[in-house]
Design a protein that fits this description.
This protein folds into 2 domains: 154 residues, S-adenosyl-l-methionine hydroxide adenosyltransferase, N-terminal (Rossmann fold, 3-Layer(aba) Sandwich), CATH 3.40.50; 113 residues, Bacterial fluorinating enzyme like (Elongation Factor Tu (Ef-tu), domain 3, Beta Barrel), CATH 2.40.30. It is built from 6 helices and 15 strands. Strand 10 and strand 11 form a beta hairpin. Helix 1 runs parallel beside helix 4.
C-alpha cells in the first residue's frame, strides 16, 4: 500500500497527565510542522509507565477514529537503547516506542503492513533530550507523517517479527470452563476480562447465573445486558462496548468489591442450577 498524501487527524495518547506542560509542548511541536492537522487527545491519564494500559486503550480507540497518525508515548525506557518505530496498519500510522505499546492497536486495525525504525535525525527537534522523546522525536515525526511524509523517510524498514510484543492475556476455553484474566479496569471499576461472549457459550455457560473464580474467592454472579439488569450495588457480568465480558457493579466499583487488579486470573463456569439475571446479588460460594 502506498503512502497517502497526508492525514487530517493525529491522535495523541500519553501518561503525561495534565498538571505539567508536557502535553501542550507536544501539541506545539505537532502544529509547528502540520498546522492544518486536527489533534485528538485520546487520554493523558494512563498510569505512569503502564505500557499495557496504554496498549489496551489505543487498541480499543484507534479503530473508532478516522484514518490518521496515532502518536502514543508511554515510555519507561526513554533514553535507553529501545527503538522508536512508525507502523502502518489499516490506513493508519502509529508512532511510538518499540516496547509493545503499538502492536495490539496495529492488529486491531487489520495487521501490520509496514514498519520502520525512526532513525532519521533530520525529522527530530534538536537538541534531543534523554527524557522527553515525546517532544523531540514522536510529536515531530508524527506531524511530518500527517503532513504527507512517506513512511520510508523515517528510517530503515523492520520486519514485524522483530517488534517487542506484550504477553497476550490468558484466554482458554475447554472442559466447560472459560479461563481468562482481568484485561483492564476503567475509572468506574468495571473489570474488562480477556473473554468474549462466544467464549462463555463455548464453555457451556448459558445466560443466567455464572460461577466466577477469582483470587479472592468464588461467587455466583448474574449475566445481564446492562448495569441495571441487577439492583443498585449488585454485581453483574455483561458484554461491554468493546465486545469483552466484563465484571461490573451497578452504581459501584467491581474491582474494589472483588479485590481485583489487572492481570488477575478469572475463571467462569455455569452455576449449578442456572439462575436469572434479575435475581441480583452475587452469592459467595463456600
Amino acid at each position: 500500500m502506498s503512502d497517502p498524501a497526508g492525514y487530517s487527524y493525529l491522535s495523541f495518547l500519553t501518561d503525561y497527565g495534565r498538571e505539567d506542560g508536557f502535553v501542550a509542548i507536544c501539541h506545539g511541536q505537532i502544529l509547528e510542522r502540520a498546522p492544518a492537522v486536527r489533534v485528538i487527545d485520546i487520554t493523558h491519564d494512563v498510569p505512569p509507565g503502564d505500557v499495557r494500559r496504554g496498549a489496551t486503550v489505543l487498541a480499543e480507540t484507534a479503530p473508532e477514529l478516522p484514518p490518521g497518525v496515532h502518536v502514543t508515548v508511554v515510555d519507561p525506557g526513554v533514553g535507553t537503547e529501545r527503538r522508536s518505530i512508525a507502523v502502518r496498519a489499516g490506513g493508519h500510522v502509529l508512532v511510538g516506542p518499540d516496547n509493545g505499546l503499538l502492536v495490539w492497536a496495529a492488529e486491531a486495525l487489520g495487521g501490520i503492513e509496514a514498519c520502520h525504525e525512526i532513525a532519521n535525525p533530520g525529522l527530530w527537534r534538536h537538541p534531543v533530550s534523554a527524557t522527553f522523546h515525546g517532544r523531540d522525536i514522536y510529536a515531530p515525526v508524527g506531524a511530518w507523517l500527517a503532513a504527507g511524509l512517506p513512511l520510508s523517510e523515517t528510517g530503515p524498514e523492520l520486519p514485524s517479527s522483530e517488534l517487542v510484543r506484550l504477553p497476550e492475556p490468558r484466554h482458554e476455553v475447554s472442559g466447560g470452563l472459560a479461563r481468562g484474566e482481568v484485561r483492564a479496569i476503567d475509572r468506574f471499576g468495571n473489570c474488562q476480562l480477556s473473554l468474549l461472549r462466544d467464549d462463555l457459550a463455548g464453555a457451556d455457560t448459558p445466560p443466567g447465573s455464572l460461577r466466577v473464580h477469582a483470587p479472592g474467592g468464588r461467587w455466583t454472579v448474574p449475566f445481564g445486558h446492562t448495569f441495571a439488569s441487577v439492583g443498585a450495588g449488585e454485581p453483574v457480568l455483561l458484554v461491554d462496548s468493546a465486545g469483552y465480558v466484563a465484571l461490573s457493579e451497578n452504581g459501584g466499583d467491581a474491582a474494589r468489591s472483588f479485590g481485583l487488579s489487572v492481570g488477575d486470573a478469572i475463571d467462569i463456569e455455569a452455576a449449578t442450577g442456572g439462575g436469572d439475571p434479575s435475581e441480583g446479588a452475587a452469592k459467595a460460594d463456600a
